[in-house]
Amino acid sequence: MESNSSRRTSRESRVMDKEPQNIIVKVLGMDGSSILFRINQATPLRRLMLSYCDWKELVVDDVYFLHNGRRLLRDDTAQKLNMTDGDVIHEFVHQTGS
């Protein structure tokens, strides 16, 4: 017979598995630098992008980011993209020429 406390623990763990968690992702710059970010999986990646550009003194509209070959949108979340701890995001600067 299962006790109430073990049922409650099992139910709580199922709920906790569905809640967004914090993960650490690495952003690799075109210059070879890397920065680690701790992000909540449900938070839009816009915050990471803005923080990265502030740190690197880049204009956010001049930069784009790729994860597994897919261009990231500002409203994307790590949860939506199935990102996991340790994933890498690549930064690229738009090239303009004459």
From TrEMBL:
Ubiquitin-like domain ranges (all copies): 21-98
Pfam family, one: Rad60-SLD
Name of the featured protein: Ubiquitin-like domain-containing protein
Origin species: Linum tenue
Lineage start: Eukaryota, Viridiplantae, Streptophyta, Embryophyta, Tracheophyta
